[in-house]
Each structure stands twice: as structure tokens, then as C-alpha cells.
Amino acid sequence: MSHTGGAYITTAFLENTLYMIKRGVELGGLPVEFYEALSKPKRILIVNIPVKMDNGKIQYFEGYRVQHCDVLGPFKGGVRFHPEVTLADDVALAVLMTLKNSLAGLPYGGAKGAVRVDPKKLSQRELEELSRGYARAIAPLIGDVVDIPAPDVGTNAQIMAWMVDEYSKLKGYNVPGVFTSKPPELWGNPVREYATGFGVAVVTREMAKKQWGQLEGKMVAIQGLGNVGRWTAYWVAKLGAKVVAVSDINGVAYKKDGLNTDIIAENRGLSGPSLLETFVAKDGAEHIRNPDAIFSLEVDVLIPAAIENVIRGDNVGGVRARVVVEGANGPTTPEAERVLYQRGVLVVPDILANAGGVVMSYLEWVENLQWYIWDEEETRRRLESIMTTNFNRVYQRWEREKQWTMRDAAIVTALERIYKTMKTRGWI
Ligand SMILES: NC(=O)C1=CN([C@@H]2O[C@H](COP(=O)(O)OP(=O)(O)OC[C@H]3O[C@@H](n4cnc5c(N)ncnc54)[C@H](O)[C@@H]3O)[C@@H](O)[C@H]2O)C=CC1
Ligand SMILES: O=C(O)CCC(=O)C(=O)O
């Protein structure tokens, strides 16, 4: 970590993210002032949330809402509950949302929220109080056409339900569109639960078609069995791949002939370590104790879907996959990406691969603003169509610029839209 001279201490993740934008601005032939316009967030809110713990004592939790850029529309991005989250990492995640929303063609700017907490250590009552407290604390800066949070690591549909309820109580009337990824019974859409993983699977299929003609039978390994990882595993198998390995913090579940991923849909309450143990206990998977073994397995596609900075200079040498699809945000460092590029390994970047979550959030928001409801099939069809179109747009751009990485093509495409809109609005 080092000081930037600004309001926060920078981190490797933020430095890497800004480096990628700078590179994109240069490759796209865009002016340096444009980089400056994007290198700092428009607004940062820092909050302290008191929670009366079950032992009767008040504990304070620090939280943030970073609003990066709203030139394309209301701010949009998830909220992370994680014990090690920093303000600088939240800034990096907000920057990625600006790019992701632009690339997906959504009418949204980018934002991200976070609370430094380990949600697994809270009781259900404490978690509810924290979630409601966070919603109250950020309420002055959000709104259904202002800034629309959603889940990220450590948060889920139940937490969104508490937050939308709290915000609605403050307003005195129901405001369904202020948070997305809510439960289906509270203005949500059933697709959102698995939307990000479904989108990752669709993009993996499209990439496999370009690379091998089809996804059928290709061997896939996935890091992380949370919301994104487990639904990626389920859908990529439904689309024809053979998921041979999944991992979480307690190790890797490996099965050469392919895991039975129906276990995921049959055990919706299970995720992370408990789901991994179920693959071992019920599906006869081998349990490899070292979680990092996932990176060096002999597979066709590797999908990191847990956290950032996991494929780095020190472990990239072990990667044997021909394609890496980034389910997580920022899982590959620029150093590691350079090595993969030189070896001809294709990296499908996060802002393209994992956009299914926010695209689905957008569909839910459109439903909410009109008090309208689409059914599951119709919604999934729309999501699949947007993801496929986005993939093809980036792929075609990348094909024209063979010296670029696919990330370069995605970032330049996203930046061009933002730049054009900034110009039109007279911001630069
Ligand atoms: N939830 C969403 O809709 C979206 C999430 N993302 C990104 O996807 C990634 C995962 O997010 P979620 O699935 O929502 O989080 P989650 O909290 O539901 O799941 C994360 C999982 O990763 C596991 N994990 C953490 N460190 C690990 C490690 N070193 N090795 C193996 N497993 C590890 C955790 O135990 C947990 O099971 C994050 O980078 C997030 O920002 C991106 C787009 C949308
Ligand atoms: O659905 C959303 O608005 C949040 C998505 C998100 O946080 C992400 O794509 O990283």
C-alpha cells in the first residue's frame, strides 16, 4: 500500500484498475484529461454504523458508498460485506462498475458500497440491524433514479430485502427500484439469484464456440462456490461443459468424469465450504485440501469466481487452462495477464464475463419502475440475448486489434461510450 496524496491509501487492486484504464485511454487514442476525469470518484460517503450486539454492547462498523461516475445515468453497483475491505478497493470496484455498465449498454454510471465486517460472525438479528443501519446511513445519497445498490460478496437477497424495507420506511412509501436483486416475493425476479453465474456460463459458451467450435465436453474448473461460482458451475454444465473441479476456502472438490452439478439446485441453501463438502460426501469427489490447487489443474477453462488478485505473477506459471473466464471482479493481475497473453491463453475480462448480475439488476429495475412483472423464462431469454450480443461486440473489436488483449478491447469499447457521452454533455 502507498499514499496517493488523496483521501485514501491506495492498494494493488486500485493501482491495477487505474493502470488498465490508463492503458485503455492510450490504446483508444483518447485524451489524457479523460483519464483524469475517471481516475477519482465523483463522491465518497464514509459511514459508521452502530449495532447492538447480542451481548448487549454497541459495536461500530465502518462502511462506504463510492459513487464513481454518473455520466451515463444513475449510479449502480453492489455492496460488499467483508472483513478486509478497504476504501481504496471499494473505489476500484466502483471504477469497474462504470466500465461494466457502459460496456453492457446500460443507462447507468458506476458505484460500489462496502462494510468492513465478517457477516459469518454475526447472528441473523445482528446482520439485519447492520443491513438496516447501512441503508439508513446511505439513504441521503441513494434513490431509485439516483444510486441503486445490489448484492456483492457477503451480501444477498435477504439483505437487499431488509435494506429496501428500511429505505421505504424512511420515505413513508414503497420504493422497489432503489435496491435490486431482491427476493421474488419482494419485487425481485427469480432469475437474479443465478443471473451472474448464468451470464458467465453464456459467455463461456460463446468463447468456447470461437475457440473450439463448441462448449460440449470441455473441462472446466471454478474457484469459489458463492453466488457467482456455484451458479456458474450449474449453468455451464447445463450448457454442455464438464465441470471437473470446484473450490472454496476449504479446498477443491475434483472428479475427473465431471461433478453432478444438479446438487447445487437441489441444495439451494448450501454454498461455500458446506457445498464443497456435499460434493465430496454425496458425489464421491476427491477432496484436495489446498484450495489453490484449482489453478493448476489440467482443464480447458478456468473460472476464478471468488475474489480479486488470485491469479498473480507468483502462481500464473501453474495455469494450464487455454481460456480464463473472469467470474470475479479483478481476479487476474496485469502482470499475470501479460504472462497468459504471451502463452496464448485467452482471458475473458470481468467487465464482460460477469455483467449478467447487473444486466439482470437493470431488468429488475425496469420492472420495478413500471410496477411490471416478467416471468422467469422471458427474463432469462432477455439476459442471454444481451450477454451474447455484448460478447460478440467485444470479440469482433478484439479480432480487429490482434495485438490487444480481450480486456483492452472491452475497456476501450466501454471508455469510448463514456467519452462520447461526456463530450456530448460538455463535461470535458
Ligand atoms: N454477486 C454478484 O451478482 C456479482 C459478483 N461479482 C463478483 O464475483 C465474485 C464473487 O462474488 P459472490 O459470489 O457474490 O460472493 P460470495 O460471497 O457469494 O461468494 C464468494 C465465495 O468465494 C469463497 N472464497 C473466498 N476466498 C476464496 C479463496 N481464496 N479460494 C476459494 N474460495 C474463496 C468464499 O468462501 C465464498 O464462498 C466477487 O469478485 C464479486 O465482486 C461480480 C458480478 C456480480
Ligand atoms: O447488480 C448490481 O447492480 C451489482 C453488480 C455488481 O456489483 C458487480 O457486477 O460487481
Oligomer: single chain
Strand elements, count? 14
CATH superfamily of the domain at 194-353: NAD(P)-binding Rossmann-like Domain
State mean pLDDT (0 to 100 scale). Answer: 97
Task: Tell me, briefly, the overall form.
Answer: globular
Elements, N to C (H/E): EEHHEEEHEHEHHEHEEHHEEEHEHHHH
Identify every distinct bound molecule in the structure, by name, code or SMILES: 1,4-dihydronicotinamide adenine dinucleotide, 2-oxoglutaric acid
Predict the CATH topology of the domain at 194-353.
Answer: Rossmann fold
Keywords: NAD, Nucleotide-binding, Oxidoreductase
Subunit structure: Homohexamer.
Active site: 112 (proton donor)
Protein name: Glutamate dehydrogenase
Protein architecture, described:
The chain has helices at residues 12-27, 32-38, 87-103, 124-138, 157-171, 192-212, 227-238, 262-266, 272-283, 334-342, 350-353, 356-370, 376-400, 406-425, and strands spanning 2-3, 9-10, 43-52, 58-69, 75-82, 109-116, 147-151, 219-223, 242-248, 251-254, 286-288, 301-304, 323-325, 346-348. The protein is globular. The mean pLDDT is 97. The two termini are 31 Å apart. The strands form three sheets. Strands 11-10-9-8-12-13-14 form a seven-stranded mixed beta sheet, with helices on both faces. It has a five-stranded mixed beta sheet with strand order 3-4-6-5-7. The chain contains 14 helices and 14 strands. The longest helix is centred in the last third of the chain and has 25 residues, at 376-400. Helix 3 crosses helix 14 (406-425). The structure holds 1,4-dihydronicotinamide adenine dinucleotide and 2-oxoglutaric acid. 1,4-dihydronicotinamide adenine dinucleotide binds next to helix 7 and strand 9.
